[in-house]
TrEMBL record:
UniProt cross-references to InterPro entries, sorted A to Z: ABC_phos-bd_PstS, PBP_domain, Phosphate-bind_PstS
NCBIfam families documented for this protein: 3a0107s03 (TIGR00975), PRK10918.1 (NF008171)
Domain of life: Bacteria
Keyword Transport: yes
Domain PBP as annotated: residue spans: 22-303
PANTHER family: PHOSPHATE-BINDING PROTEIN PSTS (PTHR42996)
Role noted for this protein: Part of the ABC transporter complex PstSACB involved in phosphate import.
Recorded name of the encoding gene: pstS
Pfam families for this protein: PBP_like_2
The keyword Transport appears for this protein: yes
Keyword terms, alphabetized: Phosphate transport, Signal, Transport
Organism this protein belongs to: Novosphingobium humi
Record protein name field: Phosphate-binding protein PstS
Assembly with partners or alone: The complex is composed of two ATP-binding proteins (PstB), two transmembrane proteins (PstC and PstA) and a solute-binding protein (PstS).
CDD domains: PBP2_PstS (cd13565)
């Protein structure tokens, strides 16, 4: 039944899918990989269509969709409107989540450590080298911080997670903004690199004194402790779906060309400051229209039937109004040349 609801390829009409099953491919961001793979399993049962999604990082997803080697790319770093136009792409959000600092300190559990953007900037710059530094202690008067060296762990691959984390640092640490800046791949002043969110979580879990950053899902899955981070209201909310949703609630989606929206440092006492959406990239003109229709049928089904799965996996589903806007935007995707 869901197949009759999808709108696509500028027709503005209900479409009925072909009777045979379709296979299609996607690649990119590791953050939504668990969600897309869960959706794909459920969707295959419901429709027979098969999605093969490869978690290779946001940078890889952008490169592969530009090279026409996948049917959709996935990225946590939205492309700017001029980048979309140059590559002939459109993008739309698929889910919402958050990036969290993770650490390995014996005796200090999840949510007990507090950090600010300025502190994180100085730690990742290598200017704060030990956990019992007076500046960290001042924010955490109730914690017994050890004199361990801080081992900084960052991503080794092109990463939308890195883009969100370094963008937050650039907004909150002028020193970081001048010295390093924000990108999906930066020249790290300190630390060691792990591949993917899983790689960073594994390094942190195995190394006493380590501090890294991962998407929230990977902190839970990897069973590593997370820190609370100071938000724009000066509060230290817990990283959880409700605080990610709070960041998304006031975002200017309808006014953002190309859906270029960042959810960093949004206002509100309960807002997680390093929140972000994950995005899907597709070619505006489809060389293989049947594949494009298969991609849109999949996300149409996911928007209609996938919220429970998203919530169970600790992702934040898109609000209904945003889903409606995105479905209307699919009309801009054309088929065939």
């Amino acid at each position: 039944m869901f197949r009759k609801t999808v709108l696509a390829f500028g027709l503005g009409l209900a479409m009925v899918s072909p009777a045979w099953a379709e296979s299609f491919t996607g690649a990119g961001a590791s953050f939504p990989a668990s969600l897309y793979q869960a959706w794909a399993r459920e969707y295959a049962v419901a429709s027979g269509d098969q999605l093969n999604y490869q978690s290779i990082g946001s940078g890889g997803g952008v490169r592969q969709i530009i090279a026409h080697t996948v049917d959709f790319g996935a990225t946590d770093k939205p492309l700017k409107p001029e980048e979309l136009n140059k590559a002939g792409l459109v993008q739309f959000p698929a889910a919402i989540g958050g990036v969290v600092p993770v650490f390995n300190l014996p005796g200090i559990g999840p949510g007990q450590l507090r950090l600010s953007g300025g502190l994180l900037g100085d730690i990742f710059l290598g200017r704060i080298k030990r956990w019992n530094d007076p500046r960290i202690a001042a924010l955490n008067p109730g914690l017994k911080l050890p004199p361990f060296p801080i081992t900084v762990v960052h991503r080794a691959d092109g990463s939308g997670t890195t883009f969100l984390f370094t963008s937050y640092l650039a907004q909150t640490s002028p020193v970081w903004a001048r010295a390093v800046g924000a990108s999906d791949a930066v020249k790290w002043p300190a630390g060691i690199g792990g591949k993917g969110n899983d790689g960073v979580a594994a390094f942190v879990r195995q190394t006493y004194g380590a501090l890294g950053y991962v998407e929230y899902i990977y902190a839970r899955k990897g069973k590593v402790s997370y820190a609370r981070v100071q938000n724009a209201a000066g509060q230290y909310p817990a990283p959880e779906p409700a605080s990610f949703a709070a960041a998304a609630s006031a975002a200017p989606w309808g006014r953002a060309a190309g859906n270029y929206v960042l959810l960093l440092n949004q206002p509100g006492a309960e807002t997680w400051p390093i929140s972000g959406a994950t995005f899907i990239l597709m070619h505006r003109e489809q060389e293989r229209p049947e594949k494009g229709r298969a991609v849109l049928r999949f996300f149409d089904w996911a928007f209609a039937r996938g919220d429970a799965t998203a919530s169970r996996l600790s992702y934040v589903p898109l609000p209904a109004s945003l889903k409606a806007m995105v479905r209307q935007q699919w009309r801009a995707i054309g088929g065939g040349k």
